[in-house]
Amino acid sequence: MTTNGSRTTVLTNIGTLVTNDPTLGEGKLGVRHDAAIVFDDGVVAWVGDSADAPAADIGQDIGGRALLPGFVESHSHLVFGGERAEEFAARMAGEKYAAGGIRNTIEATRSATDEQLQANVRRLLDESLRSGSTTVECKTGYGQNTESELRSALIAGQFTDEVTLLAAHVPPPEYAGRADDYVAMACDEMIPACAPHAKWIDVFCERGAFNREQAHAVLSAGVAAGLIPRVHGNQLGEGPGVQLAVEMGAASVDHVTYVTAEDIDALAQSSTVATLLPGADFSTRNKYPDARALLDAGVTVALGADCNPGTCYTTSLPFCIAIAVRDMHMTPAEAVWAATAGGARRCSAPIRNPFSRNTCRRHRARCTVVPPPRLPPGRATGARGLEKRRTRHKLLKYTHREAVVAHQIAVDIEPKPWTGRSDGTTAEHLRWHHAVQPYSAETAPGDCVLIGFSSDEGVRRNKGRRGAADGPDALRAGLASMALAEPLQIQDAGTVAVSGEELEAGQAALGNAVSAALDSGHFPVVLGGGHEIAYGTYLGVAGSELRTAGAKLGILNLDAHFDLRGDPIPSSGTPFRQIAEDEAAAGTSHQYSVIGISQPSNTTTLFDTAHRLGVRYLLDEECGVIGRGVVDQFLADFLDDVDLVYLTIDLDVLPAAVAPGVSAPAAYGVSLETIQYVCDRVTSSGKLAVLDVAELNPSLDIDNRTARTAARLIHRIVTKHVPVRR
User: From its phi and psi, is residue 587 left (phi > 0), alpha (psi between -120 and 50) or beta?
Assistant: First the structure.
């Protein structure tokens, strides 16, 4: 099934398919069982029974899993500094919530660095990913002056197209008692400056914040600047927020905790969505909105998580769905619809397929396969996004810091103490286990930082032999007793572990860890894990300061396989195709090159894909000793063409006699001598930013041959590494 030259994909054996279209299935959610779905270039082209599924270019049996819309987080405040734990404790001790705590966050946000704010957004988006959100709206609102609000909008715009300028959250300290003056400044100065970098205009119309007239002025200025209005209203008591939102034709009014019959009637007769935020009411011990009254009146209801530092520190829409069902008397179907289609209505998202629209950068529209899909941080997409990136680089120049800011690295398994052979404790007896220290964000830049990635979920999906999840500890053991000719600064950050089938969440977490190491000025070495590691490592490089400076990325893969498969579900066979798609979507340039391709191990389709994507490669048979000149020229051309190198070593590039402990041992392979020569050239180039080593399967290894060989390569690269100039 090919239409107009595009490629189609069919997913079959879907245990439960939620379509959100009653004409396609049962009830409000349009549920089908034993279903199938066809995508044509990312758009749903057909839905029906699995037995009736038409042929397609690519087919995937998803094994009875559920497929449902990605959650749409339509209300979040992720760009902030500091925390307000004491405020929460005070509320739990009986103090009533008021809007004043926002001013504390304003001061902390203004004082925070760009890097600190970006890291916080990345961390919270990773949490959203883990709970299944595939679209996230992000507000400003904790700067409340032109410079800080512009900075917040630009940072939010690095991660999503759904940026809201919350121009009037509360009057900042310098405008205490002068709310009218603040509104005038916001309308005349802030909104015109920030509007090109946002989609929405928002205001907190509430006691302690802004009254109806002030809120109307802010929204009107935003509309005049091309922004779409939305309102925070009726959270702390009955007030004018709902009526103002309806009058202004706002996309939504959010909170809606205290409403009158007149408010409900006005919403029912309008297109304004009532976005309920039960997490905030849970956290503040406030009463919950009367969802039943709103729904029974015909109001369109959405659910949001409202992650923010003061009144709702959760990113979990499933948690909010649970509250909505248990305490707000919504049915499960109503709550799921509100968190998916309702949120999309609230965002007015241009949904390309009826199940999900992922506006987060690096990803095309996707449904959610339980467990949830990935949502890593990203960059702007398309011409509009590229222009935003160029503008951002220009406008943020004034905030550039020469000093490298240290970042914490979040892992699932903390580093264990290293042990090994010891002939003494003085310098002439130094070994790796003497030098390795647990990672600390306080150390000076320039260290090698080890990050484990315990995963073979990608190998399982690619129908390979499992066991690579144990690779990181085997590589550490192989390194531990290696002698060091001179002292070396090495830190072990621990291991990111993929839980069950949650590969995409693990890749996003690995990306965050690699970004944190790079942005702290270190050289990350990632220990795998199956070759699905590559997409996680790439996310880290792409989201780091090194890449956002506009550097052209070169990816050098030492591998017998292209790993460019077009399968709809990511695996160890798809990472470089995913990377190519993300780079194309972001409008950025990269060069993917491979040394060691085995012709018998790659189909004609994969070679065609490689040619279409401009992949440069050398076959394994071209890499012998007599082919050293070919290898040398290949490396020279590669290094001359890129600014930054990500080196990935899939150990199945080596002959099976040298590396038997891999899922797919090489019958021919590339000699260790040639691989070492390649590594030496790249290491000495001054362009190598990150290294990962993949596919070690200790259960298949013989006498630890593969682990020892890999450890020697890592040892050589780390001890000879020439740092990237910053």
Answer: left
**Mean pLDDT to the nearest integer, 250-272:** 96
Q: Which has the minimum average pLDDT: 294-303, 392-401, 514-523, 543-552?
A: 392-401
User: What is the chain's percent helix, strand, coil content, to nearest 5?
Assistant: 40, 20, 40
Q: Would you place residue 365 in the very low, low, confident or very high pLDDT band (cuts 50, 70, 90)?
A: very low
Taken as a whole, the chain contains a residue count of: 726
User: Nearest to residue 166, comparing CAs of 199, 208, 189?
Assistant: 199
Residues 6+ apart with CB under 8 A from 218: 167, 168, 183, 186, 187, 191, 201, 203, 210
pLDDT of residue 1: 52
* Token pair in block for residue 612: 């279409």
pLDDT digits (tens, 9 = 90+) for 620-665: 999 986 678 899 999 999 999 999 999 999 999 999 999 999 999 9
Is the peptide bond between 371 and the residue preceding it cis, with omega within 30 degrees of 0?
yes
Whether the Cβ atoms of residue 620 and residue 669 lie closer than 8 Å to each other: yes
Cα separation, 573 vs 58, whole angstroms: 14
Q: Which amino acid, residue 548? A: T
Q: Could you give the angle at which helices 382-395 and 575-586 cross, rounded to 10 degrees?
A: 70
The pLDDT of residue 717 is 96
Query: Which residue, 292, 273, 244, 296, is CA-closest to 75?
Result: 273
Separation of alpha carbons 154 and 380, rounded Å:
11
Residues facing residue 229 across a β-bridge? 201
Residue 34 near residue 49, CB atoms below 8 Å: yes
DSSP 139-181: E--S--SHHHHHHHHHHHTTTBS-EEEEEESS--GGGTT-HHH
Interatomic CA distance for residues 334 and 324, integer angstroms: 9
Long-range own/partner contacts, residues 81-87 (CB < 8 A, 24 or more apart): 81/105, 81/108, 81/109, 81/110, 81/111, 81/112, 81/116, 81/117, 81/120, 81/142, 82/107, 82/108, 82/109, 82/112, 82/309, 83/108, 83/309, 84/309, 84/310, 87/310
Q: Could you identify the residue written with the tokens 């191990």?
A: 601
Contact 479, 519 (CB under 8 A): no
User: What pLDDT is stored for residue 560 in this prediction?
Assistant: 96
Q: In this predicted structure, what is the pLDDT of residue 350?
A: 37
Strand order in the sheet with 644-650: 436-438, 490-497, 448-454, 523-528, 688-694, 644-650, 553-558, 590-597, 616-619
Angstrom distance (rounded) from CA 456 to CA 461: 9
For 477-531, strand residue ranges (E) read 490-497, 523-528
Q: What percentage of residues in the chain have a pLDDT greater than 70? A: 89
* Distant-in-sequence contacts of 350-353, Cβ < 8 A, 24+ apart: 352/42, 352/43, 353/39, 353/42, 353/43, 353/44
E strands, 19-95, are: 31-40, 43-49, 58-61, 66-68, 71-73
Burial 614-653 (b: 16+ CB within 10 A, else e): ebebbbbebbeeebeeebeebbeebbeebbbbbbbbbbbb
CA distances from 349 to 92, 251, 505 (A): 37, 11, 24
Chain CA centroid to CA 716, Å: 32
Tokens coding 711: 């450890």
pTM: 0.54
Directed axis angle between helix 471-480 and helix 705-720, to 10°? Answer: 70
Residues 414, 493: Cα–Cα separation, whole Å: 7
Three-state secondary structure call for residue 590: strand
Q: Find out whether 143 and 110 touch, Cβ atoms under 8 Å.
A: yes
